[in-house]
Amino acid sequence: MRMLMDFYFITTNRGKLREMERMLKMRIKSKGLELGELQDTDVRRVARDKAMRAYYALRKPVMVEDTGLYIRALNGFPGALVKWLLKGVGNRGMCRIMRSHRDRSAYAETCISLYDGRRVRSFCGRIEGSIAKSPSGGGGFGWDHIFIPNGSTRTFAEMDPEEKDMISHRGRAVMKLKGYLKSIS
Question: What is the distance of C-alpha 113 from the center of its chain?
């Protein structure tokens, strides 16, 4: 974990920063850079591209994270473009879009990419679930209010943070990151 102290976590999302710090059990240096972002539905490609852009903007080792919500009835849309869909229609609008679809299944995927100027390393996590009929819960951020992970009847926003961390897409990506960091220390 010592190596991670050299990296800047690039995000303008305070919720992501708090979650990452909680899961890594450490304070993280962060920078809120506004970077041009690759417009792609694949979080792996977006995170990799974002890591390289952030490194060249800062000239320091960086860690970035990108998350997507892939709705099967919409052929995987919005994927990594979920931030833009939320800005446009919000959680209620996303639920309205889903009203005419029987299949509400979806999956969430997070990809964390580290770039030190030499090599990009990526750690991804995924969880299956479904889209709720309406937003619910007071916790979380983004689309946590409408995503119900398989095996649960509650949205991420209805779970306490530690419970969400143990099963979430981001939690799974962080576990892979931790495994990598242990293997090189």
Answer: 11
Q: How far is CA 167 from CA 5, 23, 79, 83, 179, in A?
A: 25, 12, 19, 21, 16
**For residues 108 and 168, is the Cβ–Cβ distance under 8 A?**
yes
Asked if 66 is an active-site residue, the reply is: yes
Q: Tens digit of pLDDT for each residue in 114-134?
A: 999 999 999 999 999 999 999
CB count within 10 Å of CB 185 equals: 8
Using CA atoms, how far apart are residues 96 and 45, in angstroms rounded to an integer?
Answer: 29
H or E, element range at 65: strand 62-71
49-73 as b/e: b if 16+ CB within 10 A? bbbbbbbeeeeebbbbbbbbbbbbb
Residue of 40, 42, 49, 66 with catalytic role: 66
Q: Rounded to whole angstroms, how far apart are CA atoms 123 and 125?
A: 7
- Would you say the pTM of this structure is higher than 0.70? yes
Q: Which two tokens stand for residue 136?
A: 């619910």
How far does CA 47 lie from the centroid of its chain? 10
Pick from 64, 70, 84, 86: which is nearest to 20 by CA? 64
The structural architecture, per CATH, of the domain 2-184 is: Alpha-Beta Complex (3.90)
Domain positions in the chain: 2-184
